Amino acid sequence: MAQLAEIGLIGLGVMGSNLALNIAEKGSRIAVFNRTPSRTRQFVSEAGALGANIIGCETMEDFVAAIRTPRPIIIMIKAGEPVDQQIDALRLLLSGGDIAIDAGNANFRDTIARFDRLKDSGITFIGMGVSGGEEGARHGPSIMVGGTEQSYTRVEKVLTSIAARYEGDPCCAWLGEDGAGHFVKTIHNGIEYADMQMIAEIYGILRDGVGKPAGEIGAIFGQWNKGRLNSYLIEITEKVLATTDPESGKPMVDVILDRAGQKGTGKWSVIEAQQLGVPATAIEAAVAARSLSAMKTEREAAEVIFGMPRYTFPLQDNAALLKDLELALFAAKIGAYAQGFAVMAEASREFGWSLPMPTIARIWRAGCIIRSQFLDEITKAFTEQPDVANLIVTPAFSAMVAESMPALRRIVAAAVTAGIPVPALSSALSYFDAYRQARGTANLIQAQRDFFGAHGFDRIDGLDRPHGPWGVGN
Ligand code: NDP
User: Fold this and answer.
1) How far apart are CA 321 and CA 327, in angstroms?
2) How many angstroms separate the CA atoms of 30 and 18, rounded?
3) Using DSSP, how many helices (H) and how many strands (E) does the chain show?
4) What is the mean pLDDT of residues 169-174?
5) Is the torsion defined by CA of 431, 435, 440, 446 positive or negative?
């Protein structure tokens, strides 16, 4: 019998095949299985020298037999029902101590349910968030693990060997029990939606407010990528804007339909924020903006009725404007990340996970789509104050907010004046304005609720008079 594999992987699609090659390249022997056997044969035949570390299996029985016990098996297939089917099939063949690892984009509530379902079977379940797309899977993703700490110990060596590294530090960690890893991945994706939307809104101001062509806007993002906005998303934005369509000779972005979808993790991040009662307005705005973008036909019809806005963008196209746009994007980004981390802090309490905030920021610094230098600053802020109520009140971030928020205010004001939609940027600004306002306006809401529904209220003087003298509903 050939040497047993250290780990197994089911699902040789885009992510699974790249993850398997990454594992083989880092020196671990891996057994692979795919529902459609021809894909397994093709994968092994194209693996080149890495094939020496890969055992291609065409039956589940051969696959399970090829892995050293206790067997860790990564399931990297279409999320949802197929994962349950795959787990059911595996259950018949696995033995106590074996570990099923769902590495797809699962809803963390499904992960918790699967964890519970397998609890008494002797088989351990891990829910693992993997970020970084195809390239990350092949050369180093960010890996967010949820499950028992003991089961993580069995797979830690392989996972840290394939993860991305930030200054030598692997971007992989155990984050808590059951659904913790998939929850963190969900919020990662929510933040990703917000980050991308805010970049797109700044692009919109430069395109529609200032009138710049794609290439020039790309060069501006290129400049910003050398500063505090340095990140993967800004880097690819520069590259995307600099690319020409080979068919038409026009900038590539100018021939791409302005219609994006929202599904899965982006939507779930907003739903969970709402369930937990944590404001994640910038993320919500980003998800809603995608839904609005998808309403292309309606938007076209509405433009016929209302026409294009005829207001002039009120700021001069000069170096000061570019500085303001850069700072505005930075300020809004702080708001979105602060919201994402606040959602995770509340979920940690709600689900009893003890999510380690500095570790989460640390493993997002490389490998994942939102990787950036900025996450290193978040890591430092949470390391100093792991239990702080909100990122924006840490000493380092409150200074950054004070410096950059005025620019966000000027840019949002100018965009609104010109009729340019900036839902995520303005949500981040309003979040800040509301968060730092000791006296808000919910006193009126409480009065209205008491008026029509006798819901009662707390008084500022502490007196025990929980209803107003409205004469109705009290
Ligand atoms: P692909 O569409 O490339 O591959 C899908 C895989 O799932 C194939 O191996 C397919 O097998 C298998 N599959 C589908 N249905 C079943 C089923 N009913 N039973 C068994 N196997 C099945 O998907 P990706 O690799 O892109 O995505 C895999 C997972 O990773 C998803 O959960 C996705 O959300 C997640 N993910 C994807 C990222 C990306 O950038 N693409 C990033 C991070 C996570 P077959 O060959 O037989 O059809």
Assistant:
1) 10
2) 12
3) 19, 10
4) 98
5) positive
* Ranges of each domain in the chain: 7-178, 186-435, 443-474
The answer to whether 428 and 331 have CB atoms below 8 angstroms apart is yes
| Architecture of the domain defined by 7-178 | 3-Layer(aba) Sandwich (3.40)
The whole-number pLDDT of residue 474 equals 44
Q: How confident is the model at residue 473 (pLDDT cuts 50, 70, 90)?
A: very low
316 burial (CB, 10 Å; 0-12 / 13-18 / 19+) is exposed
User: What tokens were used for 247?
Assistant: 């068919």
| pLDDT of 83 | 97
Respond yes or no: is residue 201 known to be catalytic: no
From 9, 10, 12, 14, the mutation candidate for ligand 1 (largest count of ligand atoms within 8 A of CB) is: 14
Ordered strands of the 54-57 beta sheet: 54-57, 30-33, 7-10, 72-75, 99-102, 124-131, 142-146, 172-176
Q: 30-33 and 54-57 as β-strands: parallel, antiparallel, unpaired? A: parallel
Cα 28 to ligand 1 centroid, rounded to whole Å: 22
288 lines ligand 1 (CB under 6 A): no
Pull the structure tokens for residue 102: 């769902």
pTM exceeds 0.85, yes or no: yes
- Average pLDDT over the chain reads 96
80 lines ligand 1 (CB under 6 A): no
Question: Residue 216 above 60 pLDDT?
Answer: yes
Q: What is the dihedral of CA 400, 401, 403, 405, to 10 degrees?
A: 150
Q: For domain 443-474, give the fold.
A: 1.20.5
Domain 186-435 CATH class label:
mainly alpha
Q: 11: Cβ below 6 Å to ligand 1?
A: yes
Phi, psi values for residue 256, rounded to 5°: -95, 130
Q: How confident is the model at residue 393 (pLDDT cuts 50, 70, 90)?
A: very high
Say what the pLDDT of residue 1 is: 56
Of 138, 69, 133, the residue nearest 105 (C-alpha): 133
Cα 413 to ligand 1 centre (Å): 44
pLDDT, residue 311, reads: 85
pLDDT value at position 308?
Answer: 85
pLDDT value of position 362 = 98
Beta strand residue intervals within 104-215, DSSP E: 124-131, 142-146, 165-166, 169-170, 172-176
Residue 212 annotated among the catalytic residues of the structure: no
